[in-house]
Amino acid sequence: MTFEVRNGSFAYPTGRKVLNDVSFSIGENRVVSVLGPNGAGKTTLLRCMLGLLRWTSGGSYIDGKLISEQSHRDVWRKVGYVPQAKLSTFAYTVSEMVLLGRSAHLKMLEKPGSEDKKIADRCLNMIGVSHLHDKLCSKISGGELQMVLIARALAAEPKLLVLDEPESNLDFRNQLIVMNAIRALRDEYGISSILNTHYPEHALSVSDGVIVLHREGSAQFGSAKDIVTEPGLRKLFGVDVRIRCFDCNKCSYTAVMPIALA
Amino acid sequence: MNKKQRIWATALIAAPLIAGILAIGIGRYSISPRDVLACLFPPMFPNADISDMARTVVISVRLPRILLALIAGAGLSVAGASFQGIFSNPMATPDTLGVASGASFGAALAILLKMNMMAIQFMAIAWGVAAVLIAMFFVIKPGEQPSTVMLILSGMVVGALFSAMLSLVKYGADPQDVLPAITYWLMGSLTGTTFERLLAGAPLIVIGSTALLLIRWRLNAMSLHEDEAKSLGVNVRLVRVIVIASSTAITASVIAMCGQIGWVGLLIPHVSRMIFGNDNRKIVPACMGLGALFMLLTDTVARSVSAAEIPVSILTAVIGAPFFIILLRKTGGVK
Q: At a CB cut-off of 8 Å and minimum separation 6, what does B128 contact?
C-alpha cells in the first residue's frame, strides 16, 4: 500500500495558513517522522492527511485513490491512528479498549464476536502487553496506555499506523519500548508508520524518511540523514545543536545535543 | 458470556417480571399473586374463582400502570446511559438537550388550553422534540461538526428558555384549578394510565430503547475523543443522530405519560456502571432491567403507602438517594 499527500494546504477559516503545499509519499516497510517546532502544524498535518480535518486544497491518496472519496470504514481498515495517550471519561478495561479497534470491520449494529476477540488478543500479544488484558485503562501507567492504544490501532489490521507524539510524556524506558515497537512492526510485520515527534534523535534512529515542517507552513521531505543535520536543525528550531555518532556494542548511535539558542 | 454474566442476565430479565406480578396484587384492594396470575393467564387456571371487581382492578387499572412503570423506567435509564456515552460526560441525563423542559411546557400549555388527556400527551411529545430540534439547530453549521460541549450548552440554553416559558404559562393559569393541575402534573404520576394512552406513547419508548440496545457497542467508541471515535471507523455523525433521536423519543413519551420524572436517567446508569463496569454492551441491558425495577418500586410505593398518591418525582429522589449512597460506599464508586 502507498499513502500519499499531494500538494496539501491547510488554512483556518480565519485565513491563517498552517500548511503550505505539502507533498510526500510512504510505501511499505517504511517509518517516516514528522519534525517541527511547536505550533508548526504537526498535529494539523496528521489530522488533515487522515481526513479528520479537510485539506483546503490538495488531498491524501491511498494507492492513488483519494481518501475523501472512499468510505470511512474502507480507509480505517488500512490506516490505524494512535492518539496521544489521554484517559477517556469512562474507564474501559484494556481488552474492551483494544476490541474497539475492530470497529471498522463491523457493521453499524454488529457487535464483536469471538474472532474479533482473538484478533484483539493477538494484537496485545504482538505489542507485549497481554498481561494487562483485564486491567482498567485508568489503572495502568502512561507508557502502558500508549502501548494499549497502539494495540487498538493494530486490531483494525492496518498497513499504516499514524502516531501523534507517541513517546512524549514517557520516561526513557517507555520511550525505548515504544520506539522498538514501531521498528518491530516495520521489520517483522511490514507495517509502516508515520509519527510526530519532538526528538530529532528518535527521527534518526527509527525513520527512513523525515518530513520537516517549518513555522511558516512550508514542508520538506527527504531521508533522515539529509535533513537532520546541524544547520538543518538550527534553521528549524532556532537552536544550535551538535550531532555526534558513536559506537556501542557493535551498533552505531547518533546523539543530538542542543547547545544554545541560535 | 461466562456463567456469572448469564446469571445476572437472567436475573435482570426475570426480576422486573416477577416484581411486576407481585406489584399488581399490592394496593388498597389487595389481590394474591395466584389470583393475579389467574386474571392475566385465564387458560392456565381453569378452576380459579375471580370476582369481576378483582378482574377489573388487575386488567384495566393496575396492569397498564405497571407496564408503563416498567417501560418508562427502562427507557429513561437507557436514554440517560446513551447520552452519557455520546456526550462522553457522566453528568449527562436524558434532559441534557432540553427535551424535558420542552415537553413540560407543551403539557402545561395543553392543560392551560383545557385540552383532553390525549391532546396533552401529544403536545408534550411535540414540544419535547421541538426543544431538541431547536437546540441542535443553534449549533449546526454547514460542513462543520458541532462539538459536544456546544451541543450541551445549547441544550441548557433551550432548557432554560422553555422553563421560562413554562413559568409564564403557570403565571397566566387560573390559581383556583388550572395552576394546581399543572403543578401536580409536573410532579409526575402514573395515575390514570389506560391501555389507550399506553398504546399512544409506549411504541416510541419501545422503538427508541430497541434502537439503543442494538447500537450499544458503538457507544463505547463514541465516549472517546471525537477524532479517536472517527479513526476507529465509526460514523460519528450517524450514531449521534440515531442516539439523540431515540433518546428524545423515549424521554418525550415518558414525560408525556408520567410527567417530569427526574433522577432515574442519571441514577440508574451510574448504578449499572458501579456493578458492571463501563462497557455499554453490559450497561445498556443492565439499565433496562434495573431502571424498570426501580421505577416499579417507586410507583408501587407512591400508590400504596398512603391514602393519597405521592408524586413519583419526590419518591425517585427519596428512595434513589440513599440507595445510591449505599452502593457508592459498597463498590467504591464508578471505576
A: B99, B100, B102, B103, B106, B248, B251, B252, B255, B256
Relative to beta strand A57-62, strand A3-11 is: antiparallel
What number is the ipTM of this complex? 0.91
> Minimal Cα distance from B278: which residue of A?
A92
Place of cell 465516549: B223
CB atoms near residue B314 (< 10 Å):
14
Q: Within 13 Å and on the Cβ side, how many CA atoms surround B24?
A: 29
The CATH-assigned architecture of domain B3-331 is Orthogonal Bundle (1.10)
Q: For position B45, what pLDDT does the model report?
A: 83
Spell out the domain ranges in chain B.
Answer: 3-331
CATH class of A3-228: alpha beta
Report how far residue B75's alpha carbon sits from residue B212's, in angstroms, rounded to the nearest whole number.
10
pTM of the model: 0.92
Measure CB to CB from residue B231 to each of A50, A90, A112 and give the nearest one: A50
Torsion of CA A105, A111, A114, A116, to 10 degrees: 20
Q: How confident is the model at residue B262 (pLDDT cuts 50, 70, 90)?
A: confident
Nearest Cα of chain B lies from the Cα of A161 at a distance, in angstroms, of 11
CA–CA distance, B300 with B298 (Å, rounded to integer): 6
Cβ separation of A93 and B234 shorter than 8 Å?
no
What are the start-end ranges of the H helices in A136-199?
142-154, 172-189
| Per-residue confidence band for A158, with pLDDT thresholds at 50, 70 and 90 | very high
Secondary structure (3-state) at B294: helix
Q: Would you list the domain boundaries of chain A?
A: 3-228, 238-262
What is the spatial distance between Cα B110 and Cα B119, in angstroms, rounded to a whole number?
A: 7
Max Cα-Cα span within chain B: 68
Task: Look at B277 and A93 and tell me if their CB atoms are within 8 Å.
Answer: yes
